[in-house]
Amino acid sequence: MAAALIGSSLVLGRPAAAADAPTVDSILARHLEAVGGKEAMQKVHSRLIQVRIESESIGNGEGEIYAKAPDRQRSHIELGGLGAVDEGFDGTVAWAKSAMEGVRVKTGDELAKVRREAQFNPELKLKSLYPDLAYKGTEKVGDEEAWVLESRPSATSKERFWFSAKTVLLVRIESEYEGPQGVINANLFPGDYKVFDGLKLPCAMKLKTSSGGQGFEFTIKFLSVKHNVEVDDSKFAKPAE
């Protein structure tokens, strides 16, 4: 999508009238341009990210995240006393594995959420992934004014996206959905955007989650990013029980 203007009054630096409020299409078009554009995205088909996890509640750790077009995803994190935590999606099956739970297959809202998030270069598909996206006005995220879009992918789930009115980059994502122990609420705050092969990625993300009266938070920091690495599809397959 080409970059879209949000009304001549805003472009010229004058306050926009209510009639010139941004639309879903204009926000998504400008966001696509802000993260690098369609041409740069089409040159990338896989990604390997080395990450560090920092948390007072679950400890620190390191690991890697693999992603591959069109919709494959896999993460492996070593978390101190908790041991290894693995999650993956092979295009059909979404799964998680840990020392506490063993192997668990995700269903319902969890599966649907993973399927959406595993789409490679999702900025190219946001309108089709969330066809009911609606503009909900502006809110502050920290000191930054942001445009809010909302989707209800199912009767028991909700997604809200905050796009910086200045940079049109995502500064917050809130998700509510049914999990194994009830409703899960997750707030992700992307930041520290850097450019890799023409694409702007958030290299620090704070995540706050709560479910069943319990919650925790941690920060994910990117240590390195490599594009177009060779990743065999077996990497994403559900491990044996």
Characterize the structure shown.
With 241 residues, the protein is mostly beta strands. It has a single domain, classed as Clam (outer membrane lipoprotein receptor (LolB), chain A), CATH 2.50.20. The protein is 14% helix and 50% strand. The protein has helices spanning 8-11, 24-34, 38-41, 108-117, 126-129, and strands at 46-54, 61-68, 72-79, 83-89, 94-98, 102-105, 134-141, 144-154, 157-164, 170-179, 182-196, 199-211, 214-227. A hairpin with a 5-residue loop joins strand 9 (157-164) and strand 10. Mean pLDDT is 90; it is low at 1-19.
Strand order of the largest sheet: 6-5-4-3-2-1-13-12-11-10-9-8-7
Q: Give me the number of helical elements.
A: 5
CATH architecture: Clam
Mean pLDDT: 90
What proportion of the residues form beta strands (DSSP E)?
A: over 45%
Kindly state the percentage of residues in helix.
Answer: 10-25%
C-alpha Rg (nearest Å): 18 Å
Any idea of the CATH class? Mainly Beta
Shape: globular
**Helix and strand string, N-terminal first?**
HHHEEEEEEHHEEEEEEE
The class by helix and strand makeup works out as mainly beta
